[in-house]
Amino acid sequence: MRIATFNINNVVSRLAALTAWLDAEQPDVVCLQELKAEHAAFPFAALKSLGYEAAWKGQRAWNGVAILGRGMTPVVTRIALPGEPDKSQARYIEAAVGGVLIGCLYLPNGNPAPGPKFDYKLAWFEAFLAHAQSLMASGAPVVLAGDYNVVPTEADLYPNHSYAGNALLRPESRAAFQRLLDQGWTDALRAVHPEGPLWTFWSYPRFRWPSDKGLRIDHLLVSPQIATQLVDAGVDRWARGLDGASDHAPAWIEIDR
């Protein structure tokens, strides 16, 4: 089973790029973030024509999350985190797909930091940590996939970068991510590829994509049961080079299930 996460950065305007990737790679489960579309505008029919059923939570102009299942219907268990600080923002959806519980998240960016947006990021992170701990305690097979807006270590972005002070790198953000790992979650991409660049995001300005100045902010954290089934992981960098591409590339894991 291949499970992927992809910040699509507007599912309507980038539908051609999304469908090209789905058609080429045919992942079994996909978590999408930044739909930037109202609930009714989600392109369900176009995805269904490719064999994907979907569950989603839209939001006009911003945010929005979805879970796709190839030949499988996601059975929704949550459309918001317990204790989420602002439930008007569509940042979390959870569903059972193919015997795996999938949590799809779009963690707040938090910039500028310090400030109210960074405070909101940390508050959202606390709610997520609490829910992740309850999922871990359940013993269920779980994958928490999405745009975490956290660069976990200096090895997860290009050298001599210009992101000092950015909310994605701040000690508080990295400490919260480490607290997730300390609960028992496995960072699946790093488990398979302990060293080397695994960029999933290249910002549009300053020619970051052509010069390969990327960051790893899209992660798939897996519960112990899934970690034992992990056979491969990677990033579909080619999707970032498509016409009209998102500034993210899809990241994925393969599990023997």
TrEMBL record:
<keyword id="KW-0479">Metal-binding</keyword>
<feature type="domain" description="Endonuclease/exonuclease/phosphatase">
    <location>
        <begin position="4"/>
        <end position="248"/>
    </location>
</feature>
<protein>
    <submittedName>
        <fullName>Exodeoxyribonuclease III</fullName>
    </submittedName>
</protein>
<comment type="similarity">
    <text>Belongs to the DNA repair enzymes AP/ExoA family.</text>
</comment>
<dbReference type="InterPro" id="IPR036691">
    <property type="entry name" value="Endo/exonu/phosph_ase_sf"/>
</dbReference>
<dbReference type="Pfam" id="PF03372">
    <property type="entry name" value="Exo_endo_phos"/>
</dbReference>
<dbReference type="InterPro" id="IPR004808">
    <property type="entry name" value="AP_endonuc_1"/>
</dbReference>
<dbReference type="InterPro" id="IPR005135">
    <property type="entry name" value="Endo/exonuclease/phosphatase"/>
</dbReference>
<dbReference type="InterPro" id="IPR037493">
    <property type="entry name" value="ExoIII-like"/>
</dbReference>
<keyword id="KW-0378">Hydrolase</keyword>
<dbReference type="InterPro" id="IPR020847">
    <property type="entry name" value="AP_endonuclease_F1_BS"/>
</dbReference>
<keyword id="KW-0460">Magnesium</keyword>
